Hints:
Layout: H1 4-17, H2 25-34, H3 56-65, H4 77-90, H5 93-105, E1 110-113, E2 129-133, E3 136-143, E4 154-160, E5 171-177, E6 183-188, E7 197-208, E8 212-213, H6 219-235, H7 246-255, H8 262-289, H9 297-320, H10 345-351, H11 362-373
Parallel strand pairs: 1-4
Antiparallel strand pairs: 2-3, 3-7, 4-5, 5-8, 6-7
Helix pairs in contact: 1-3, 2-5, 4-5, 4-6, 6-9, 7-9, 8-9, 9-10, 9-11
Amino acid sequence: MTDAGELRRRTQELLAAYPPATTGRTDFLTARFDAGLAWVHYPAGLGGLDAPRALQAVVDAELEAAGAPDNDPRRIGIGLGMAAPTILAYGTEEQKRRFLRPLWVGEEVWCQLFSEPGAGSDLAALGTRAVRDGEDWVVNGQKVWTSSAHVARWAILIARTDPDAPKHRGITYFLCDMTDPGVEVRPLRQITGEAEFNEVFLTDVRIPDAHRLGGIGDGWKVAQTTLMNERVSIGGARIPREGGMIGPVSRTWRERPELRTHDLHQRLLDLWVDAEVARLTGERLRQQLVAGQPGPEGSGMKLAFARLNQEISGLEVELLGEEGLLYDDWTMRRPELVDFTGRDAGYRYLRSKGNSIEGGTSEVLLNIVAERVLGLPAEPRTDKDVAWKDLAR
């Protein structure tokens, strides 16, 4: 079995063969993937060494100390946190070898075509249709709230392939080429002025059956792997103490004593403790993942992430008083990533409003936690065994 010492040796061999100071970024990342040091718990030949997940930290520490480049995980977070584990779990060997390396290196950005304007928070009610035509599927429909669609080469897509089946059973999962004819991406301007979200229109888009992930009609099961990983990646990201949203407001408190009041002090202390509890809970969740797969606990972490971001950003605006009402830039841009800590308090306050919607609404996640974590009785659902085509819409 690969141990920490073996991983350090392999990492030093990589650094000796491809010195970061003289090796191009893409070349270094490609060599790292091929050496099995990308995600060490993945199979050999797919960026890993079949090693324990916990040993990834050993590799990362060695590379960071040597000044090696990373793969800019914030820019390719959907690919790393959602597409990759789903492809690994359900993809064919050909699919894994085709997609995982360019995904990890960052040569191909991914987006997620799940949400629809007509389905709301009930993802299983989606209406985008995929109809079989020989060796292809012809897809028509609309998706919404699609982060990074304007820069993505590939998308994970779920579509309805059997309208006669109940809504959870007639869905199939595909890998969609965003450069194909019939894919149209339109920006959705947000309250921040930016348009990192998009709506995507699919008109007679032809997807080869070779780009189907999992069995026909098994899309909901495949999508659960994506969703569980998404919520862990959003709510359980590894951050240092006072990382994330609590960092800027804590710095302002220390550097601007004239802004302090007793009430704000008490609220900041409460939120600081909550943020630290959430950080440590996320660390524990990641340790649990070492031995298994992400479960519904990730939904609880994502819930906490949304609540904390909104409450902390609200406190920061209040702390700054008149300054907190200012907003630096309403320019319409289409950014590649969300930068919560690199902008001003006004941006953080406005952008955090989306945290309780993206990655699963807080209302839906509360149901998941209640039923799957706490074991409470499920809400009555009268539509689970009704054919999708017969549902009221």
